[in-house]
Amino acid sequence: MSWIVEQSENTSAVNVNGNTITCKSNGSYGSPINVLYQDPANQNGQYFWQIEVLESDSKGSGNLSVGLTTEQGFQAGWGLKAMKYLGNLSDGSALLVQAFGDQIKNNDKVGLLLQLTNEDLKIYIFHNDRPLGLAFHVQSPYPKPLYPGKRLYHV
Predict the structure, then answer these.
(1) CB distance 116 to 43 below 8 Å
(2) Which pLDDT tens digit goes with each residue over 98-134?
């Protein structure tokens, strides 16, 4: 599987090498850069992804986020619609829960455990191997397939 980078003028700053993503720029990005991992959850069952942040030059708070989105929800910049964890919980349009956990920073690991059934989907968050609990619970019908994604930076 591999990462897909959004289509925007910012993507020239992103380099994908296997499972590693680097993003460097001398200036400001103006908007977030989003990436999607091509490992979808499209059947009932349990899925787990872990994303490690080795180094970030993000400025400000709440810059890095991880979560799950659909192909339609995967948009450039602020257009991303996803169930996201960034310390808070968001749906890409609004803050849903404040202070669900710590903000994501250098050397952090964030795990996403997804459980899909005919009745509902549940997403549990783990931050640095610490279980934070049930973050999202959506009753059927819900969109699928779902893809793990990451918001890299914004200034």
Answers:
(1) yes
(2) 999 999 988 899 999 999 999 999 999 999 999 999 9
